Every structure is written in C-alpha cells, then in structure tokens.
Amino acid sequence: MNAMxxxxxxxxxxxxxxxxxKQPVEYRRLYVWELPVRIYHWVNAVALVTxxxxxxxxxxxxxxxxxxxxxxxxxxxWVRFIHFVAAFVYVFNFxxxxxxxxxxxxxxxxxxxxxxxxxxxxxIVEVVKADVLQVKLHGPLSSGHNALAALIYFxxxxxxxxxxxxxxxxxxxxxxxxxxxxxVWIVPLMGGEFAVRFWHHTFLWFFVTFAIVHIYLxxxxxxxEGRGTVSSIIGGWKFERVKSxx
Length: 246
What we know:
- By secondary structure, the protein is mainly alpha-helical.
- The chain has one domain (35-241): Up-down Bundle (Fumarate Reductase Cytochrome B subunit), CATH 1.20.950.
- It has helices spanning 9-22, 35-59, 75-103, 118-132, 147-171, 178-181, 186-189, 193-225, 229-235, and strands spanning 27-31, 237-241.
- Helix 2 packs antiparallel against helix 3 and helix 5 (147-171) runs antiparallel to helix 8.
C-alpha cells in the first residue's frame, strides 16, 4: 500500500521564500493606524494588564504579607486602588476610541468591523483556513485588519463594555462617585453580587486568552507577510505590495 502523503507546508514556505528572494518585489508605504488609534492601543494594553493582575489578586489574595496585622499594612488597599484607577483609565480611553470610530480614517471607522460585503465574508473563510485550520500559508493581505480580526475586535469591544458594567456595578456599593452609581441596578438584575462577580471574573480570563492569541498572531503575520504588522502599531505605517503593471 502507498503511504499517505501529507502536505509539507514548511517546504512550500521555504520554496516560495526562495523564489520571492530571487524576484525583488516593490512595496509602498501606507499610513494605516492614526495616532489616536495607536495611543488607544497602548493605553488600553497597559490598563488591561494592570486590571488583570490586580483583579486576579483581588479574587485570590496572596498570603505573603499576612504575617503582620492588617492595620500595620495597606498592600491590599493599594491593589484595589490601582485596580479602580486603571478601570477609569480603561473606560475613558475606550470612550475616546468609540468617538474615533466615527471620525477616523477608513481603517478605524466602525464599518470596517462588520463583514458587510461578500468579499469580506469570503476573506473570513480564507483567514480561518490560514490561521485556524493551517491548510494554507496565509489569507488575503489586508491593509488594515483582516475581516475576521475586525469582527473579533468588535466582539471584544462588547466584552469591554460588559466588563466595565459589571465592574462598576460591584464598585457602586462602596463608592460615593456618580459614575459607579449609574450601574447599581445591574446587581439585582443579574441576581446578586455573586453572579456579577462571577461574570466579571470570567471576562478576566477571556481577556487573558485574547491577549495571548492577539500577540501570537501579530508576530505570526509579521513574520509570514513581512509588511510591518508589529511596527505599524508604533509608527502607524505598513507596507503594501505594488501590483505588477503599475
């Protein structure tokens, strides 16, 4: 019997890379991520990491500082304070991004996050084949987010809102600020603080998972496509192949 042959994507990639190296390809610089989008990205990244770390400590406090009496230390109070400050930064930074979705360039506008055209829906299928099923080297080369990434980011924005609402609902019972008190009705609506805290903590692990996948795919596409995917979120510029005949 003949042995079953499996596709060797590594060999195909090396062969295609060698072929491309022999044939110089012309690229042009393309300004994709505007300054407000880049500021939002990095402020959000710092705030989200801070919220995840402090949120985990609030849910599962470490015992390293329990030798002294509670009145002799304030480390847990600082953890909560940092968590609350990061939450306010997180929310107002997100509000800025909501606004920029209406006034930014075509890569930042909200319509870019929905697969409204047949081409975008086809692109989602192609990206799934490349990034999830690994049956092809890469999907279509999009200047901004590919259609699947954009759709996932939209659902992530919804998770941002849910995390913020449940967080302020928990904070409303102990705060005198007007903003948390706007969400005091969430607690009885969801059946009590236990349910609110459960979902708030569940979303924490959603964002941890999202961050891991996001960082991996960013570097993966940067390596495979070679168009400055990672550096573009710092400087704003990507590189786009110039089509032959132009």
